[in-house]
Each structure stands twice: as structure tokens, then as C-alpha cells.
Design a protein that fits this description.
Blueprint (H helix, E strand, L loop, with lengths): L1 H8 L9 H30 L6 H21 L6 H22 L8 H14 L1 H18 L9 H44 L7 E2 H18 L3 E8 L2 H8 L1 H17 L6 E4 L4 E7 L3 H16 L3 E4 L2 E3 L3 E7 L7 H17 L5 E3 L6
Parallel strand pairs: 1-3, 7-8
Antiparallel strand pairs: 2-4, 2-7, 3-4, 5-6
Helix pairs in contact: 2-3, 3-4, 4-5, 5-6, 5-7, 6-7, 9-10
């Protein structure tokens, strides 16, 4: 089964937010292959004499079969090409259906292909394209019916056009509700994913998600031999803040401190809350000097905070920060975090409100 999927869809990956595109992509691949197979079968049956078809339309069917395969090959493994391929295939389909309508006049049901086309347009190209194709099909059948070698009767034409319009309206509202439901589900999943990955109070990564992300960064760094560092940040005297001012004020302090840490870092740096008042920072592509300077920037920024806890009353806080730099090729996140933790305790013992490297030398 996996081999068949690889053959049909190619080597293509979709993000978790691309569920709808993934459906459209795979649906179009299957439709193009099925269309080529069915049309090719009809050509074979005609050639065998079982169901002769006008030679002009056979030529059109051969072009359609080859075009469907070429469009599939163009799309296979290239999700970015979905929209132009979908439109190109739609144009090819309409031309094939027009050929059948004109050249296969002995087939009273030949116009049914226009009706089968409408659901695919709504599913692949959306409501606007579906509306345009539905309206164009209804008008085209009405206006050019008299020019066909074997026109439909007024009653048959009325039934056909009514069916096209009804099908168009049906799939218009179906697509509207389906897409609306999909969008709500996607947004809900995004929100749930965010909540599962982030600390609700500070909005930085929670401990589980933080360590998972760091493990991925470490694996990448090991493959590329890139440097990295970890900072361990502990807010000084945080217990006394809770005891003196209450947990509500303590929550405000944590939020402000987390915001301050984020603003002091690069976009590529990772921040997680790993304990009550403890934060950890992963610094990719950082050497010892760069990591120490980043820690010092955070320390100064936290020291400069003035947190309003009541009218005309503010609170000052400080933090002790430990720095550990990648030194061993096979070093794990747990090992480097432990070194940063030891360095942070060294900063505490040296008087707090300072940065200490793993060597224990105070700033």
C-alpha cells in the first residue's frame, strides 16, 4: 500500500496545517489517473468495434488521456503546483466534454460529463470557480444547443440545465459548510496544540515541549557540528514575593519576567518554563562569549523591570543565571542543563543577581 501511495502521489510532505491542501492534492492525482484510465478504456472499446465513436472525438480522447497523464506527472511530488495543474486539467476536461457533446450526437447522455465536472471543481478549486463553471455550463448548453448536430429537445434541455444549476447550488453550500467546518477544526487543533506546548501563565514553552524542541536542536547541531549553549534562569527571592504579596502578584512577576526574557533574545532562541520560577534558554549557534553576553543582557533587563503591583507601588526583581556551553560531541540536553543548573547555584552563592558560567566563576 505504501508503495502504491508513493507511486501515485510521489515524495511529498504536508504540514499539519495543510490537511485541506493534502486532500485536494491527492484527490486531483486520483481523478487525473482515473480520467485517463476511463477515457483510454473507451478508446480501446471503440477501436475493438464494440462501441464505435466518431474519429474526431477519438482524437480528442487520445489528447485528453495523454494530457491527464502529463498533468499528473507534473503534479506528482510537487504540492506547490497544485493550483495551476488543477486549472489546466479543468480546461482540458471542458474541452473534452465539448468535443463529446458535438461529435457523439448518438449518445443522449453525453452531457452528463458536464454535471460530473461540477463537484470536482467545487472540491478542487473552491466556490468561486465552481460558481463560474456552473453558470458557464448552464449558459453554454442553453445558447449553443441549437448549433449541435443533434440538439436536445426543449424539455431535455430544461431538465439538463436545471440539473446543472441544482448540482451547482448543492455543492456551493456543501463546500461552504465543509470548508467552514474544516477551518474551525483547524483553528481548534492549532489552539489545542499551542496549549499543549506552552505554559499558560507565561506563554513560553512548557517543560515537556521545551526539552523536546531542544533535543531536536541538539540532534541537528551534532550533525552539523554547530555550537550551542543553555542558560538556566532563577528569579531571586521569588518565594518571599509570593509570601509577602500573594500568588496573584507572583503570577504577574512570572509573566513580566518571561516577556523580558523573550525580548532579550534572538528569534531563533528557545525559552521554556521548567520550574515554578525557573526558566531555561537554548541558544543555537552560540559560543561561550555569546552565551555569557546573552545571559548578561537578560539579567540587566530583569533588573531594570519595574512591576506595578498597586497604584503608585511597584516591585523590583532580579535573577541569577547559569551558563553552560556545548563541549562534548554526544552531550545530551539533560547533561548540559545540569551544568547550567550548577552554574546558576554558583551565581546564587556568590550574591545573586549575576551570571555564572559552568566553571563557577562569577560575573
Amino acid at each position: 500500500m505504501d508503495t502504491l501511495r508513493q507511486l501515485v502521489f510521489g515524495d511529498v510532505a504536508f504540514e499539519t496545517s495543510e490537511e485541506h491542501l493534502e486532500f485536494q492534492y491527492k484527490f486531483l492525482c486520483v481523478v487525473m489517473l482515473a480520467s485517463a484510465a476511463i477515457t483510454g478504456l473507451l478508446v480501446f472499446v471503440s477501436a475493438s468495434g464494440s462501441n464505435p465513436i466518431d474519429p474526431e472525438h477519438v482524437r480528442s480522447m487520445n489528447i485528453f488521456t495523454a494530457g491527464s497523464i502529463l498533468f499528473w506527472l507534473a503534479l506528482r511530488g510537487r504540492k506547490a503546483w497544485f493550483l495551476p495543474v488543477a486549472w489546466g486539467f479543468q480546461v482540458l476536461c471542458v474541452l473534452e466534454y465539448v468535443s463529446a457533446l458535438y461529435y457523439v450526437s448518438v449518445d443522449e447522455l453525453r452531457a452528463i460529463w458536464f454535471m460530473t465536472n461540477i463537484p470536482g471543481v467545487y472540491l478542487l478549486l473552491g466556490q468561486r470557480a465552481g460558481f463560474v463553471v456552473t453558470l458557464g455550463t448552464a449558459l453554454g448548453l442553453s445558447v449553443f444547443n441549437a448549433d449541435l448536430p443533434s440538439p436536445y429537445s426543449p424539455n431535455a434541455l430544461a431538465t439538463l440545465v436545471s440539473g446543472v444549476i441544482f448540482l451547482g447550488f448543492f455543492f456551493h453550500f456543501y463546500a461552504d459548510r465543509s470548508i467552514s467546518y474544516f477551518v474551525r477544526m483547524r483553528d481548534s487543533n492549532k489552539q489545542l496544540y499551542y496549549m499543549a506546548m506552552h505554559d499558560q501563565l507565561t506563554e513560553v514553552f512548557n517543560a515537556r515541549a521545551y526539552y523536546q524542541v531542544c533535543d531536536c536542536f541538539i540532534a541537528q547541531s551534532q550533525r552539523s557540528s554547530a555550537a550551542y549553549a543553555v542558560l538556566f534562569i532563577d528569579l531571586d527571592h521569588f518565594k518571599s514575593i509570593n509570601d509577602t504579596h500573594g500568588h496573584a502578584v507572583g503570577d504577574v512577576v512570572l509573566r513580566k519576567a518571561a516577556e523580558c526574557i523573550r525580548k532579550s533574545l534572538r528569534a531563533s532562541d528557545i525559552v521554556g518554563r521548567v520550574g515554578g520560577e525557573e526558566f531555561s534558554v537554548f541558544l543555537p549557534n552560540a559560543n561561550a562569549d555569546g552565551a555569557f553576553q546573552a545571559a548578561e543582557n537578560i539579567r540587566k533587563a530583569i533588573e531594570a523591570l519595574s512591576i506595578e503591583i498597586a497604584p503608585e507601588r511597584s516591585l523590583k526583581i532580579t535573577a541569577s543565571i547559569g551558563v553552560a556551553v556545548h563541549q562534548q560531541p554526544d552531550q545530551t540536553m539533560q547533561e548540559i542543563q545540569s551544568k547550567a543548573d550548577l552554574a546558576m547555584y554558583s551565581a546564587k552563592k556568590s550574591g545573586r543577581n549575576r551570571v555564572s558560567s559552568f566553571s563557577g566563576a562569577p560575573a
